[in-house]
Design brief:
Elements: E1 4-9, H1 16-24, E2 29-33, H2 41-49, E3 60-65, H3 69-82, E4 90-93, H4 98-110, E5 125-129, H5 134-145, E6 149-154, H6 157-170, E7 175-180, H7 185-188, E8 193-196, H8 207-212, E9 218-221, E10 238-242, E11 245-248, H9 250-268, E12 275-276, H10 278-291
Parallel strand pairs: 1-2, 1-3, 3-4, 4-12, 5-6, 5-8, 6-7, 8-9, 9-11
Antiparallel strand pairs: 10-11
Helix pairs in contact: 2-3, 4-5, 4-9, 4-10, 9-10
Bound molecules: NADP nicotinamide-adenine-dinucleotide phosphate (NAP).
NADP nicotinamide-adenine-dinucleotide phosphate (NAP) binds at residues 96-97, 101, 130, 132-136, 154-156, 159, 197-200, 202, 222-224, 250, 253-254, 257.
Length: 297
């Protein structure tokens, strides 16, 4: 039975990066649809639910992507409502690569930092620059769920507050705090982890700010387009040491991200009831990181 992946994207063009990774990870056939919305997704989902028999449903899966996170979430909710009983297929949600990238980022940080407070001590304080983008939102969500106190930074305090509120509604236990990039000096000296998730080619942390961050032991820059998001980090850095600081660049994180992405595609076709969102992808990433599992090339 051929492995068919239904690639749904809220953007006009379904993402070619996601298509290539799907083929490399073992999908035999890709059915690609752009401009997907909650209004037009149901017939696409019925098409994969009712064509193959129950025992073959695991050979069909769905990948859902696109830049607009609220739109992707609305479609995911519609897909979930369309399934019934065991008449369903596995689903992998990765808007703009945000879930797999955020999972890889958290895994890299966790190699060096404990997020939760131990025996009443202070929890890890993390600063996320560019926190309002798809990747920054997911990094903030995963860090908050892991027990870190997360400072979400934006050029606009209102925008940072809005995203904090949205996340807090879904994850009330998470410690999330908005901040504005022009007030960074208030938090920069007290955070243990800094993640730069700003747009491509945008410097988010200057050298002077890097030096002011005297409590920070791990820095992660997700931007691969020069100039660096965090001045001094190279895209290839993978746990490079700069005195007491540990540095990761975009390609260092990208390597972990690709392992998670390929492992997730492989798992989609093992059963018909997987639902892989940010938290599930983090769990897959932890397993892949521990076992150093090499997905099929
Ligand atoms: N390493 C990997 O494997 C990997 C995978 C996927 C993505 N990425 C990278 O991860 C980063 C984040 O991706 P994304 O899609 O979330 O990014 P994005 O939506 O383009 O930008 C994220 C945030 O950066 C801020 N920003 C944008 N332009 C800015 C500017 N000129 N000055 C200051 N702040 C600016 C904005 O926040 P405010 O407007 O609220 O300030 C924006 O919401 C990108 O660099 C992307 O290339 C890396």
């Amino acid at each position: 039975m051929k492995k068919i992946l239904l690639q749904l994207d809220v953007d006009q063009q379904p993402c070619s990066f996601d298509a290539v990774v799907a083929i490399d990870a073992g999908a035999d056939i890709l059915l690609r649809h752009g401009n997907v919305s909650p209004d037009n997704v149901v017939s696409l989902i019925h098409g994969v639910m009712f064509t193959r028999g129950a025992s073959d449903l695991a050979s069909t899966s769905i990948f859902l992507g696109g830049k607009n996170i609220p739109q992707v979430e609305a479609i995911a909710s519609q897909i979930s409502k369309t399934f019934f009983k065991s008449v369903r297929v596995s689903v992998f949600i990765d808007p703009a690569g945000a879930n797999t990238t955020a999972a890889a980022t958290v895994i890299a940080a966790k190699r060096h930092i404990s997020f939760k407070s131990s025996s009443g001590g202070k929890a890890c304080h993390a600063l996320v620059l560019g926190s309002t983008g798809p990747v920054g939102q997911r990094v903030s969500r995963l860090l908050g769920n892991q027990g870190a106190h997360v400072h979400l930074a934006s050029r606009s305090f209102e925008r940072a507050s809005q995203y904090c509120n949205l996340l807090s509604e879904k994850f009330p236990h998470a410690h999330l705090e908005p901040t504005s990039v022009d007030k960074l000096e208030k938090v920069i000296g007290s955070v243990n982890l800094i993640i730069s998730a700003g747009g491509p080619g945008v410097e988010m942390l200057t050298k002077a700010q890097y030096l002011q961050a005297t409590s920070t032991s791990v820095y992660i820059d997700l931007n691969a387009v020069p100039p660096a998001g965090i001045t001094g980090i190279h895209a290839n850095d993978t746990a490079r040491r700069d005195s007491t600081k540990i540095l990761y660049g975009a390609l260092g994180i990208g390597e972990i991200k690709m392992k998670i992405h390929k492992a997730a595609i492989k798992r989609l076709f093992q059963t018909n009831d997987l639902w892989l969102d940010a938290e599930e992808l983090l769990r897959i990433g932890e397993e892949v990181d521990v076992s150093n599992e090499q997905p099929n090339q």
